[in-house]
Amino acid sequence: METGAYYPPPESKGGWRWLERSDKVRAIAGMDPEKLDLVRQREEFLHSGHSWGIVIIRRGYLVREFYTFNVLVPTRFDIWSGTKSFTGTAWGLLLEDSRRNRLPGGRHVEMRSPAYAYIPEGHPLTDPRKERITIRHLLTMTSGIAGESVGVIGIPTATEDGPFEHALGQSPNRYGKWTDKLRADPGTRWDYSDPAFAHLALAFVNISGQEMSEYLKERVFDPIGVEGLSWDVQGGSGHIGPHTNAHTGIHVSARELARFGYLMLQDGVWEGQRLLPKWWVDLSTTTSQDLNPAYGYTWWVNTQGTRWPGVPQDAFALMGYRSNYCCIVPSLDLVITRVGTGPPVAEGHSQGLLSSIVAAVIPVGARWT
Fold first, then answer.
1. Do 328 and 314 share a structural domain?
2. How big, in percent rounded to 5, are the helix, strand and coil portions of the chain?
3. Is the pLDDT assigned to residue 2 strictly greater than 60?
4. What is the DSSP letter of 10?
5. What residues make up the domain containing 105?
6. Which of the ends of the chain has fewer CB neighbours closer than 10 A, N or C?
């Protein structure tokens, strides 16, 4: 078995090293090729009505990749809420920049900083309790801003209203739902809230002077060789914005998403260069609060073994609608990415796929003939 850090060149320069022969998959990647073939059969049987791509990376090798007939290696998909983990990564870097006094104009921001101090667009506040919302609350889905539990999903607005205005509680969405009044005091309730996440885009650009998409391209995407990613903006046309969409809108291929997962697997280091602060990698990928132990700081986590039963507890993942996700299992040196158009609900799908791929890892000491 080969050891040591390996980092794939960009796709335009050769991309991932890969294994084809079954004996190499067993000996080098330590995975059972027959069980991996069953993974493909299962996906094709259960989800033939959707377009998708799956990439499995172990020990730095592209062990297997599966695609439906209409998907090519560079085909990009909107990973929906998987975007949130990229937003969180941008904030981890921003907080580190603040610690090192690298922010423009001597600005300073911490987890405990009040979010609306950096969002002048949100004043006057539509609820006085919003003054107590911190950056930590936004990153952990505990701000109290209305979310999916009360039917506020995404930020869909009518033509005359802007998405950021809706997120800030200044206008309804197209279904007449408001976010003006908090549903709970900050820090007392967990709710998956896209409007809350939109706050992070505004605060970020106001603090850094850069859009998150530009910032991550320079600090992360270019250094790790991501060439085919795009990131949507929202707002504008007479409303606040346009600004990077914090809660959805990254379009990426399975192989390139695997690069981001591999960076996380390597504790934020790429070719000897630390791109992400280790404290952020560690913090963001473990339970962040007791209200929902399966959520870290913009990453879904298995810290207590409840998110994906039977999968190692150090597993964590970015996850989005229509079964788009990237799961990293450090104890197994494993990265699994799936992008596609469905099935719609990722939770049940991810359990089945992750469990079957983890089951293909050959136990240490097993003998094969």
1. yes
2. 35, 15, 50
3. no
4. P
5. 81-244
6. C
